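[job 4417] fold queue: 2 targets
>>> target A
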Amino acid sequence: MRKILIAVVVNLLLSQVSLAANDILKPGHPDRYLVQKGDTLWDISSMFLAQAWRWPEIWRVNPEIENPHLIYPGDEIMLRYVDGEPQLLLSRGDEARTVRLTPIPNGDVKASPRIRSEPLTSSIPAIPLDAIAGLLNAGRIVEAQTLEQAPYILANKSDRLIFGPGDEFYARGEWVQDTTVYGVFRSGQIYQDPETKEILGYEAQELGVATVLERDDNIVTMSLGAVKADVRLGDRLLPTEERRVESMFYPAAPTAAVSGSIMTIVGNATQVGKNHVVTVNRGVRSGLAVGNVLAIFKQGAIVRDKLAGDQVRMPAERVGLLMVFRVFDKMSYGLVLEAKEPVSVGDLLQNP
């Protein structure tokens, strides 16, 4: 009798482990994977997990690895069970062990420089960074009066209408004291909430960077540095942002219930798929943060009920997933990471 009871308990425990694994693991998942150049953490997680964004839940921190979130080609991802729970573990490969040594000055000329080691190969990104590189640190979403009240380019010393790197020009306006580096901006798109019609922000397109050379009251002489587009008379100047650029993302569901929609598709397309950028009509004030994941839904069609004599909207259908990578007060930028069918403006967004 005792053996039977023990067997029943063991079977119950195994069934609970199986249920927990089935809840998060993808059917047919591998037990291990050797990381390749060009992989992303999202792609690898998609091999193991039913929902790739849940990888932080089962990522086991290896005490012997300095930063287990940095994964390199040649590393091995392994699926193991720890206390009955599935865990992803990391085994370092040769690429991460092969390092370059760089001397770091101590600041004291009498002291010997310290040595910093870093892998020769770059770690793989969490998501495809090339898809969002242009929006990680360029451009801003500002309030209505921000650009209108900002200093502006008054004249070019060489009388050209379009400026290039190295050109010196005069600018006029109210300046921030002790600020010597400014971004050059031009008004872009106006973002309006499709539901409430509230203006959520004004796009300030970044064109380049300029440095202050001389000041004469409200007229400042500046030199244009690197440019991303043509700079012209009337373009506005804003102090550069001291903002940490996120390049490693940790996906998670929003801490609060979020319900919104896709406002626009960056690039003015009408329909897009995986790895395209969209704007979301929710931001910090709605509880969104960098790394938050939102499910994408197609609104159900409206059909006529011939028996009842009225019209009924069908349930929304989940078609994809996006991750927020840059957040402003009232809106955000998101990257589509999964799409069963084309994603469109107006598609609904909810917690995953």
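>>> target B
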Amino acid sequence: MKIFCTGASGYIGGSVAAHLIAAGHQVTGLVRSPEKAEAVRARGVHPLLGTLDDRDILTQAAQRADVVVNAASADHGDAVESLLGALAGSGKPLIHTSGSSIVGTRAKGERSDAIFDEDTPNTPSPARAARVALNEFILSHRDKGCRPVIICPSLIYGPGLGAGPDSVQVPLLINLAKKRGNAAHAGPGENIWSNVHIDDLVTLYALAIEKAPAGAFYFAENGENSMREACEAINRMLGFAELPTAMSMQEAAAEWGERTAEDTMASNSRVRAKRARQELGWQPAARGLIEEIEHGCYRE
């Protein structure tokens, strides 16, 4: 198949593109610079120079493709409108990437027992209300002659593009540990995020392309850990003997920025990928987060 992928030079999009190319598909990837074009070309992706703001480029690329994977931004409404408009009436799938912070709540590092699957009602936080509204807009196009599908990953970890780790939360924690000589979490670090290995995530994209019905929404996870557990594993990996330290939210905001500290590093996001397992037969099998930190791609 001919597949058009936005975010083809990024962690998720690049990993998905590599998986699809290995399966024999032809992937055209949207990139923003000649340098990124050369990088993706070396991995077998046909580069297309442009940005998410280039409506004509997105429309034409989507119309030429059999499948569109949007992995560049979970929040770019104009790009989504362009892609959906191009696919309307075609029956073709649009696989859109969201993120499980849509069920997250600001908790200042405290634990929450709220767990969500695809059928659990949820009122998003103000920080994620626009993303949830965009997801609903995308899925509403199941009645307009295309096949919109949303994949909603939890905390992603593991080596992207076969060239080392490039996720968000874990590298932030590792970089801070190296800077301070000890791992540190926001607040008590009892907050929990579900997580998924990038290798398992890309297989979910392939399954969704193959057989997800129009209007489907899938969480992606295969376990969960607290930020404290992640920090303890980082200390073991780096050879630091001390226990991780607890930062105040002011300290965390100074390190990561207020929104990242509040909505990512000190929040809870606990989800269950019930529908992906039941409906698509997804069977994640990669090593867990703690093992990956201690013995995998994050270890120097």
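[job 4417] complete. Note on B: Residues 198-211 form the longest helix (14 residues).
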